[in-house]
Amino acid sequence: MADVTLDTPIAAPAKPAVPLRKMLHNPAVLFGGTIIVVVLLMGLLAPWLGTIDPTAINPIARNKVPGAEMTMRTDTGERIKMTAKFGTDSLGRDVYSRVVYGARVSLLVGVSVALISVGCGLLIGVLAGFFRLLDAIIMRIMDGLMAIPAILLAIAMVSLFRSSVWTVIVAITVPQVPGVVRLVRSIVLSVREEPYVEAAVTLGTSTPKLLWRHVLPNTIAPIIVQGTFICASAILIEAILSFLGIGVPPEVPTWGNIIAEGRQVFSLFPHNIIYPGVFLALTILAVNILGDGLRDTLDPKMAKRV
Amino acid sequence: MAGPVLEITNLSVAINGGGDRPHAVRGISLKVGANEIVCVVGESGSGKSVTAQAVMRLLPKNAMHVEAGSMRLEGEELTTKSDAELRATRGTRMAMVFQEPMTALNPVERVGDQIGEVLEIHTALDPRERRKRVLEIMRAVHLPDPEQMIDAYPHQLSGGQRQRIMIAAALVLDPALLIADEPTTALDVTTQAQILKLVREMQGRKKTGVLFITHDFGVVSEIADRVVVMQLGRIVEQGPCEEILRNPREDYTKMLLASVPSMTPPKRVPVSGPVVLQTEKLFKTFGKRTLLRPKARIVNAVIDVSLSVRRGETLGIVGESGSGKSTVARCVARLVQPTQGEIRIDNVDVAAMKEAKFRPMRRRVQFVFQDPYRSLNPRRTIGEAIIEGPMNYGLSRNEALQRARDLMAVVHLSPESIERYPHQFSGGQRQRICIARALAMEPEILIGDEPVSALDVSVQDQVLKLLDEVRRRFDLAVLFITHDLRVAAQVCDRIAVMQRGVIVEQGTTAEVFAAPQHAYTKALFEAAPGRNREFFGGKANACAPGRAP
Predict the structure, then answer these.
(1) What ipTM was reported for this prediction?
(2) Whole-model pTM?
């Protein structure tokens, strides 16, 4: 009897579904991803996109409407005639150049905050989920951190330290970490009960190896999804901080401080706010759509529930 | 009534988008008469539950649809009914009892209201009359103290009581057809016996036709008038219970029946090897009262358990859920820390050893888990799973891989398949892989925690044979945890019966089966479905004793 089934066909060899291809077939991932890549390239290639120094002030060409002709001085000192594609602001700075350069700060802040908070959250969450003694202590600290509003923390940090991009990144990261910790901890708590984790224990696998091989891989998909949402909210918070004037130094162009700058003359020259606003909205929309798409492909169960 | 209650002709249910096969059920025809219990029996994937869902028109909407055929309830076609007509039919003329009584009941609604809901929807009774009817039906299904229980929530009831509530809700309007989809599978044997008795009694009361889905031939022999055997969406054969069980015509039925382990233990030579595993006055208590939580719930899962296993011997621990049998196994493997007592492996007490000191000993004690689908990491190839242990103990990757290939052959799988992932294997194959993984550690003690209870009966048979084979080949001491007396009879040299954390009886399998001493052991044997029946070949009693065929 037994011998008959020895040769029971085993399902055809196949690698476990490669999510990358599935991801690229998802329209949300494709759409969001494309926009982000475009914004990213825009930030990286800013100097070659027909921009001039975004901080150059040109008092005679203040508050030009989009498409107006103006004369600007280049880095080397020669004067050139050019079209202000997006107009100029009340100090005569070229809005187009500022918007293009502004993408750098936004993306830097968004990506850094996402990476750092995911990294810290992963480490702390795994520790909290796997070691019961640490759990109570860590989670109470996290509860405490959650009570700190990002904006207040940023104001405090900027007044304590120099205002810089990294101050902003740290200030936004700290309140994001507890969310990641909670997510990771809950996954670890459920995975550690899986028989295959217990099986590894009976095989004498040491705790660090156990975490690395059997527990951590389960957190990757939800973490990627969570990371994109953190990225979106970090970009937004950075813009808010810059708008309030407590973010990056005022001479660095960001979408937030371009909007802030244009606020006083908004009723007369709305282009100061509209162009950076559109870019900000589009970027955040793209990151969120990308996150939704990733969730659909990486975590179908969660997608159904939402 | 002249016609059958339910008549299914040529029913085909297609799987949308096709799974491993285009049809879940293909061209089946069967009848259920009034006052008749028809058992549909088959292994997983046979389409038996789909049949039940098709009749209730409860097929998962996007996944399957009825493609062809007709289903007539008391002569009335069901396939063409509109949703509104179906709603009027469900509950009044046909009703269903599900497998899992906890999830089938709404946890936040009182059980009385859940039964009353049926009356509220289908009758014009006022609340007072409804309550009276609910109490009546609760009494009829022998629920203790219905006046109290009617206002209870599902979590306050035991599994058996919940299933009685389900049956009460299904039968409160005396439907002509009752569909029961594995209603006793999630229950302990003693509870199962009571529920089976209840189904028979309730069915006799109003001459209900019952379509009873099960995978267990013991249950079939207890309850069925007629039997329908299904395989891969088709009916293999059907006929009166007695005829099918005694003289099956088809090979598949014969194979299924032959796979049901016998209740009679085979003759065994007493094992005289050295004792390798011994527990002495082992206790495990969950929960702890502390200063902060003076009223914390304390569960004494294992109480004063002393047992020993010799080399080459299989000790079975038998008991119902909550008896502490798994906890004993997990204490021995040190997956949980025993509260008190000794666990001696080769005369070394490991009960209180620190994990770091115990780790070198882990190699000697290996574990095979119940659920083959969850005991292998889905992200790692089975080769990686098998070599993980040996590599932890210093074997080089190549040596470990060689050992893995050899062991794949030992468990009758092809050595090349170590490159594959767990999802490419069936349940039985995965359990073989788990055995190979355990053997790769060259253990002395193998613990099986219900290793075959998630498997189909024919696969179960093969895995049991394999376990027996490796025990002999590697001279292993086996601690075998099971709730199934038939399985225990076949594989164990000695048996320990556990109830509420205590071993109530211990002895050789032959002794315990021939003359159980303790009242609880007797009750267990009494409740085992089809206990007097030897399937295929042995002496057989009448089907569903006490009923005219």
Answers:
(1) 0.79
(2) 0.80
